[in-house]
Automatic annotation (TrEMBL):
Residues 115-335 form the Fibrinogen C-terminal domain. It is found in: Secreted. Keywords: Coiled coil, Disulfide bond, Glycoprotein, Secreted, Signal. This is Fibrinogen C-terminal domain-containing protein. The lineage of its organism: Eukaryota, Metazoa, Chordata, Craniata, Vertebrata. Residues 42-108 form a coiled coil.
């Protein structure tokens, strides 16, 4: 019976195989359909990605080019800036050179004029009378006839007609004014910066009737002045005693209190007080007991000037606790003509 059934079994298997093959074929045919769609999408995506990459690369290249252009522009601007700076430096140098030449001419002029006329007291007013009208430093040579020493002075040829010889200036603040008698007698500091001309020179110059003008500036940039129509010092034997009169101006009369007072320094207390005013107020001045002004006091920079009473004060304007930003004291003889 088994032998009789074998061909049927084989046939059955063959049919099954055919059926299986047939059943697989449609699947195989349907797969490529969906696989083809997938590949198209992938290809499309790939193309898009490629395009985007290309755009990105292009953008990158463009940014790089822009960056290079900007760097080049910055470098060019920097170069131009350096060239301009060089030009400014050159111009400044030329200006300085011209200025020096003018100053040398001023000095030479002052010297030659002095050497040919020893009949006048030499100061900025007499230079002005000889038509020297530029404010600046002048060197007055030694004069045997007048027995006056060589002296550098700073002339203000602008204020109220000019002809002013500066006897004091504070504007930089690096020069200490807490000095001894000898230094105040002979003078100290730099004529273009902060200085005291020297009591001996002031005494000599004020032998001719003179006016004193005091100009002060506060830290807000406001300026005021005090003028004394009469101003002179006594000699050293009389401690350079101060004489002044005829106040005018808008700063207040804060030197009147010091009138008829001897000059004091930290090593020579000539004031009218039990206290040692020069030591307390840290400068040389005509202290009475002690001050209504202290123009040779401590130079306090902005913000520090209210902390003590030893500053560069002028009570008539800002009281005892305010130290000025700038001070100039200058003299001019009554004989001055504009
Ligand atoms: Ca005293």
């Amino acid at each position: 019976m088994a032998k009789g059934k074998t061909p049927i079994v084989i046939l059955g298997l063959a049919l099954l195989l055919l059926a299986g093959a047939w059943a697989q074929n449609p699947k195989k045919k349907s797969f490529p359909k969906s696989h083809k769609g997938c590949c198209d999408e992938v290809r499309s995506l790939k193309v898009q990605v490629a395009n985007l990459t290309s755009i990105l690369e292009e953008l990158g290249r463009k940014q790089e080019t822009d960056l290079i252009t900007i760097v080049r522009q910055v470098m060019e601007l920097d170069k131009q800036n350096r060239q301009q700076e060089a030009r400014v430096t050159e111009a400044e140098s030329k200006y300085s050179e011209i200025n020096n030449r003018v100053e040398i001419l001023q000095l030479q002029g002052a010297q030659s004029v002095t050497q040919t006329s020893s009949d006048v007291m030499y100061d900025c007013a007499s230079l002005h009378a000889k038509n020297y009208r530029i404010s600046g430093e002048y060197r007055l040579p030694k004069d045997e006839f007048l027995r006056t020493p060589e002296l550098s002075v700073f002339c203000d040829m602008d204020t109220d007609g000019g002809g002013w010889t500066l006897i004091q200036r504070r504007r930089v603040g690096l020069t200490s004014f807490d000095r001894d008698w000898k230094q105040y007698r002979n003078g100290f500091g730099t004529i273009r910066g902060d200085f005291w001309l020297g009591n001996e020179h002031i005494f000599r110059l004020t032998q001719q009737p003179s006016t004193l003008r005091i100009e002060i500036e506060d830290w807000e940039g406001q300026t005021r002045f005090a003028e004394y129509g009469y101003f002179s010092l006594h000699n050293e034997l009389n401690s350079y005693k101060l004489f002044l009169a005829n106040y005018s101006g808008n700063a207040g009369d804060s030197l009147r209190y010091h009138n008829n007072t001897n000059f004091s320094t930290k090593n020579r207390d000539n004031d009218k007080c039990v206290d040692d005013c020069a030591a307390l107020r840290k400068g040389g001045y005509w202290y009475n007991c002690c001050t209504d002004s202290n123009l040779n006091g401590v130079f306090y920079r902005r913000g520090l000037h209210t902390k003590s009473t030893d500053g560069m004060t002028w009570y008539g304007w800002h009281g005892p606790n305010y130290s000025m930003k700038r001070v100039e004291m200058k003299i001019r003889p009554h004989s001055f003509h504009r």
